[in-house]
Amino acid sequence: MTVTLPRQRVKARLSDAVSGLLYLSPSIALFGIFLVYPLLRTIYLSFFRTDTQGTPLEFVGLGHYASLFMSATFWQSVQATVGFVALTVPLTILVALGLALLANEKLRGIGIFRTAFSATMGMSVAASSVIWMFMYNPSIGIFNRFLEAIGASGVQWLLDPQYALLSVSLATVWMNIGFTFLILLGGLQNIDRALYESADIAGTGYWTQLRAITIPMLSPTLFFVGIISLINAFQTFGQIDLLTKGGPMNSTNVIVYAIYKDAFINYNVGGASAQAVLLFVTVLLLTWLQFKLVERKVHYQ
Amino acid sequence: MKSIQLQHIQKSYGDTEVIRGIDVTIEAGEFFALVGPSGCGKSTMLRMIAGLESITAGTLRIDGVAANELKPSERQLSMVFQNYALYPHMSVEKNITFGLHTKGLTKLEQRERCHEAAETLGLTDYLKRKPRELSGGQRQRVALARAIVTEAPICLMDEPLSNLDAKLRAKMRSEIRQLQRKLNLTMIYVTHDQVEAMTMADRMMLLNEGEVQQIGKPLDLYNKPANTFVASFIGSPPMNLVPVKRSEKGFVASDGRQFQPNVMTTVETATLGVRPEQILPANEDVTFYAELKNIEVLGTETILAFDVGGVEWLAKWPGQWPLSIGEKVACYIDPKQMSLFDADGERIEPRHPKLFEALEVFQ
């Protein structure tokens, strides 16, 4: 059965749709130009051999992907990325959670600590990288001075392939703590005080309360912070560029940095595009997996 | 069963005094209500007894033993919070048994006690559910079950019924009262609702701005309010009050209405108080005539509003009265039912006339 709408109602609906689109148009335009178009263009370019300007010359199908999977450098990048993510994400969340638990206590002057712990959020990656570069400096940096003071030999923090990824990861953890801390503290403060008071009367200790009340009540926040941190870690670029430039011996050449080098230094735009697509798919899959696996353990109120 | 003694308990936050020296003994097995307007310090009082707030000065004794420094869990009490404080991520059963392991109970004993408490409160079918899947009344019952499962001899309740609708509130009122009797609990019950306190309590304490106004049986507070604050807080509608001056025959309001309360006193100015249900339709003796400002017929009773000495008074007449606004009606008040308060608002106790004369001679 077809329903024929009176002409006036059709008109009204049409004008509703038009004005709705008009309201949306600024964000549609922004998303389209800076997100959707680059994404589609990247996927398109990953199937082509291009010149140095990125103009497609010849369709190569899955050729770029095939050569990536054969390339030792690519697998080294994957290894560095996985290592970087595995080092930074859990450590950032653990340290930030510890600080948030401390800063959530009602003590005099706690505001000073809350400000201090969240301060790294206000620092640019560039500025923090420079600070860490000085601290990692083999001759004047504080880490080596400390090692020398206790009689150990200094370490080439950013130049030794064994230590470089760890060093960059530590600096990254420090940079990310501010944001993660602030979100987790907000989550903690949203937990009803009466829950703890009731537990106090029941006689449960601090650690039981942490395990049985705080962590479950904080789980939506932890889940959110986990996803954001994971995506951020996969996309890290600034501190790599400033601290190690992917070296030494590609040990910190994480995938985003490899993409940058391939596209703008080696002018292999097609190959870089293929890597970007692979990164996109990986992050998408991991986030989807996280939602599937972890969300069941998250207690939304 | 445990008694609780408050000996000059005080609480201050910085320079602000919230509780100004409270002395009271709550007997073992007693249902004791703490009543007062919001911000009067009643919840703070309860939280100090629970050990959730520190006591600034004074001594709290539980069964004679000083308890100021005891942890909440060492005070042998349970508490029901205003918002119930249920753990949203735990099942009803887990909520009820949470913390029981600290009392050295095995898993089996915990389950037995949980089922017993659930049965008492009609929660047996809901043990596997989460709090969000329950109605307000059921959540309230879970909170009660959690309080009784510990078998603590003292139970504290902080406005436990304020989140329920009126019908459910009346039902839970009697349920809580029955539970307290059955388990022989020493109950301290905080509420801002004087009806709750009147209907449930063995004794009650009325607080205002951190100070005790009156402690006693609900009917004592109702019949013999210690001051004008108690008079205007207890009762619905509250006691009618009007400032009066001494005259030849007794006392006179600013509009010339005469009152002859059965109270012997020498004060020149006072406040006169009469309960709305004590203002009756006059048969022979007429205390005053009232010009009706408003009238509400409620089926079982009729509420009349009129001015006395510039203050709006309410009278509650039993039955349905077909009166109209502007009409003049004759009212009668039994002189014995008039309360008199001095210039500070304190009640002037009615004395026997003979005794009063004797005292006058002495002075």
The number of distinct structural domains of chain A comes to 2
Total strand count of chain B, please? Answer: 21
Class by alpha and beta content of chain A: mainly alpha
Largest sheet data of chain B = 6 strands, mixed
CATH H level of the largest domain in chain B: which superfamily? Answer: P-loop containing nucleotide triphosphate hydrolases
Low-confidence region ranges of chain B: none
Helix segment tally of chain B: 9
The tally of strands of chain A reads: 2
Q: Output the CATH homologous superfamily of the largest domain in chain A.
A: MetI-like
Q: Strand order across the biggest sheet of chain A?
A: 1-2
Which key features would you list for this structure?
heterodimer; A: 301 residues; mainly alpha; MetI-like fold; 2 domains; two-stranded antiparallel sheet; 12 helices; 71% helix; flat; B: 363 residues; alpha+beta; Rossmann fold; OB fold (Dihydrolipoamide Acetyltransferase, E2P); 6-stranded mixed beta sheet; 5-stranded antiparallel beta sheet; 21 strands
